[in-house]
Structures are given as structure tokens and as C-alpha cells.
Fold:
Amino acid sequence: MSHAETIVMSVGGSLIVPDQIDTKFLSNLKDLIHTEATTNGRHFIIIAGGGKTARRYQEAAATVTNLESDDLDWMGIHATRLNGHLLRTIFRDIAYPIMIKNPDEILDVSKKEKVIIAAGYRPGCSTDLRAIQIAERIHAVKVINLSNTDYVYTDDPRTNPKAVKIEDIIWADFRKLIPAEWAPGLSSPFDPVAAKAAEAGGIEVAQINGLKLEELANYLHDEPFVGTKIHS
Structure:
């Protein structure tokens, strides 16, 4: 990646709030982004996921009353916004002061901003789609998806010991591995709605384990990295 390129990155809620807020991860992320932004001149748009915060609110509400999908989605969206404010505060010295919700808002932000934080917008998809939509609007061709796994697998490795890691896959084959539709709380390496949009837009997604940020650094510097490339 060139230093002038704006990097769109989705940070999974499972990294920010795996159970309690992971301050070690946040400190490591801050150090890497600071170095890349201030020393290497890169620009970042970071979209926050909801994590355990979202699921706890969703599960609590569902225990008390019957919920519609929109209800679940809205709680997830607000969890991403809370996590987004956490990230914006951590990067306050170099971050744009307003958190982006509607992807169209990115068009109103100066390209000189070093770090821009974004979060969920409307029901019907995850923050993965918002990352793709923001990438489309700024004409970025690559999106980084930080999660808590090393690779995309043929199945969930937590439940299927025969699941095989994938290092490189095209969107058409990847979409056969995931559900066809979005559902609130869906556990999928990448949101099906976002996968369809990325395929249509010719956007490459790099799935990288956020707990191994040296692999993110390798990807940023066009070096071999542990992770999965999904592309057209």
C-alpha cells in the first residue's frame, strides 16, 4: 500500500470488547496507528463493531420481551457507536472530532484528516457493509477486517475440527461459505450484504487477527502476512 492511500479498516467488537474492554489491544492499536499516521503519513478510517456489549443488551432485552429484528439491530448499532466513541477518544489528538455514522458523511471530511472513526448507521446489515460503502465513496480498493481469528475457514473451527484455513479466495467462492442473508447477531467472517457489495465493487478485503498487529503492519507494507485475502 502506498503511504498516501487511505486505509479503511473494520475493527471487530470481539477485539474491543471480547468480554471486558481489552485495554491491551487498544493500546497496541493506538501505537500502531499513531506510528503509521504520524511517521509514515498514512490516513485511516476505522469502523467500530459492537462486540459483547451489543450481544448483552440484545440478550437482556430478548429475555424481558419479544423483539423485532430492527430492535436487535438498533441495539447493535448503538453498541458500535459507544465503541466508536471509545476509539475516537483514544485517538483524540489525531482524530477527526466527529464520529461518522452515515457513510455519505465521509465526503464532507477533509482528506487531510489522519484518523476518522465511524460506526453503525441503519438496521439491515453490520458495520462490515459501512466499511465497504465508505471505501466505495473514497474510491479505496482495499478494506482491512480485523477480527479475533487468523484466517477465514471453510467452517467454524470452534465447532468443526476439520475446518480448513483459507489464505486466498475469490468472492464468488467465499459467498458460498456464508449465509445468504443478514440477521442481527450473525456470526460470519464477513456480513453477507457487505460481501455482495465488495464483490460488485471489486474491493479486496484482508481478514487479519487484530491480536497479531504485526500481521496488520506486514499487510500495510505489502509484505507476506498471516490472514486471508478475499477478492474478485
Observations:
- DSSP finds eight helices and nine strands in the chain.
- The helical segments are 13-16, 23-39, 51-64, 69-90, 127-138, 171-174, 192-201, 213-220.
- The chain has one domain: 6-231.
- Residues 11 and 48 are 5 Å apart (CA to CA).
